[in-house]
Specification:
The protein has 483 residues and is an alpha/beta fold. Helices cover 60% and strands 9% of the residues. The protein is built from 23 helices and 7 strands.
Length: 483
């Protein structure tokens, strides 16, 4: 009730220019919008407004926009704007707040020169929540106008062409993205429920189909579901999104991801990645994923250039920074890989992907006890994860602790009766044990299961002991990775 009264007292829409800006602004960061609603359960809504504004601004070619992962690390921060600007290497920041009451929403946004903390522009808007998409594009257009960037005719048209949306579908979509960003099995499952709810409420909601595609892609990629169960659903959702809106970079990127890891359709994947980059050159995820594709192809210099571009757009992303190290690993530059993974662990000692990849790199250096220590650190938190258990088993095998390796291998066999265990990971254990025939048997099962890990066949050092065998050349040919 109090919030409703407050909204009633506010101007319906206002644009207030504080100063004419003489500063050149070529890059900016949208910091997390503050939830002014008394209900903390509405936090997802403020985060969603932030995400959508980032997405709209990122599609403007003349502007560099920092991605969500990096800006969300400043939620609730006490750092000064000049400090944030230096860390993100941007010219300006956008701050704002969201106040919602029933079917009304009020958004205040302000543009601030990062180095000087000088306020350049502020505007307050109030709309029906059904008009949230057009409101977000109006805010993006006003920011573009204030910083005087040149828009293409297509960009101008897009910023002025957004219809109404079913508020319940929009809310379900935002909740889906909130849980998707957890990047764990429980989060993906909750996200799927909300994305499905969104498309049931609005069957033409293309972004909700992208959300479904992203969930199913990562459920397979994280070995949480069998690829043959998850990825066809991802592809169907991505294709439906493209039927509804062929200009969605996110949908092209999701389809490319599936074609890369599941179809092994290398030409089709690259075409989709390039189309996504053309539509949204500021979309960090597509540069990140395209970099992985290039690494799979053995195009290491191009891969690093794409990963560095992703890093520019999302400088604080832990996974992107980790995968800079992963590229060094695939290029057999192990000292650089170790150094990069250690840098990430200085950023966040609990980021387990960096520990796993550091462990793999230690293996290649013959530092087996250090590798085992990294795998055990992660397993102390996630003791039932079959992928981590397989890595530890392989580590034991390489260090000569065969009995311990075999014990875990038997446990994985029992676990596979209850839940999905990637055959590829079992194959890696057998390579560590030096049992080539068993390794090839499990690689064949991985092929039958369409395991995404097979996309790395050409470059993965963990398989070097098998490369001289004719069976390996045959597998490379079938996956389409013959040079």
């Amino acid at each position: 009730m109090v919030v409703a009264v407050l909204l009633g007292l506010l101007t319906v829409s206002g644009l207030y220019l504080y100063n004419e800006s003489n500063q050149t602004i070529k890059s900016l960061a949208v910091l997390p919008f503050v939830n002014l609603t008394a209900d903390p359960e509405q936090e997802y809504f403020a985060d969603g407004v932030t995400d959508m504004l980032i997405a709209d601004l990122a599609k403007l070619r003349a502007l560099g926009v920092i991605s969500r992962t990096s800006v969300m690390r400043y939620k609730g921060t006490r750092k000064s704007l000049p400090e944030i600007g230096r860390e993100l290497n941007v010219d300006a920041v956008v701050e704002g707040s969201v106040l919602r009451s029933d079917d009304r929403i009020r958004i205040t946004a302000q543009l601030i020169h990062a180095a000087t903390d000088r306020h350049l522009w502020v505007a307050t808007y109030e709309r029906d929540v059904r008009d949230i998409l057009s409101l977000q594009r109006e805010i993006s257009g006003n920011i573009a106008q204030e910083i005087r960037i040149t828009l293409t005719p297509q960009e101008q048209a897009r910023l002025t062409s957004a219809g109404q949306i079913n508020p319940a579908a929009y809310e379900a979509y935002l909740k889906g993205r909130y849980y998707w960003n957890w990047r764990v099995g429980e989060g993906f499952n909750r996200a799927i429920g909300y994305f499905q709810q969104a498309v049931e409420l609005d069957p033409n909601y293309a972004l909700a189909y992208v959300g479904l595609a992203d969930c199913y892609n990562l459920l397979a990629n994280y070995d949480l579901l069998p690829p043959r169960e998850a990825v066809p659903k991802a592809k169907a959702a991505a294709k439906k999104a493209l039927e509804l809106d062929g200009t969605l970079a996110e949908a092209h990127a999701s389809l490319a991801f599936a074609r890369m890891y599941y179809d092994w359709d290398w030409q089709g994947a690259e075409s989709q990645f390039q189309r996504a980059i053309d539509l949204n050159p500021n979309y960090a995820a597509v540069h990140h994923w395209y970099s992985l594709y290039l690494a799979m192809m053995g195009r290491s210099d191009e891969a690093m250039a794409e990963m560095r571009r992703a890093q520019e757009l999302d400088p604080l992303s832990l996974i992107i920074n980790t995968n800079v190290g992963w590229l060094y690993y695939f290029a057999r530059q192990y000292d650089q890989a170790i150094g990069q993974c250690r840098k990430v662990l200085e950023m966040d000692a609990n980021f387990f992907s960096a520990r796993v990849k550091l462990g793999w790199t230690y293996e290649q250096r013959g530092m087996h006890e250090q590798a085992i220590a990294e795998f055990q650190t992660v397993l102390n938190v996630s003791s039932d994860d079959p992928a981590l258990r397989a890595m530890l088993s392989r580590g034991y095998a390489l260090s000569g602790r065969r009995d311990e390796a075999v014990r875990i291998l038997h446990q994985l066999g029992e676990q596979s009766q209850r839940s999905y265990v990637s055959p590829y990971l079992i194959a890696l254990v057998y390579t560590g044990l030096g049992e080539k025939d068993q390794a090839f048997d499990w690689l064949e099962k991985a092929y039958e299961n369409r395991c995404g890990w097979l996309a790395w066949l050409r470059v993965d050092p963990k398989l070097d002991s098998l490369r001289s065998d004719s069976r390996f050349a045959d597998l490379l040919r079938r996956v389409g990775l013959t040079p």
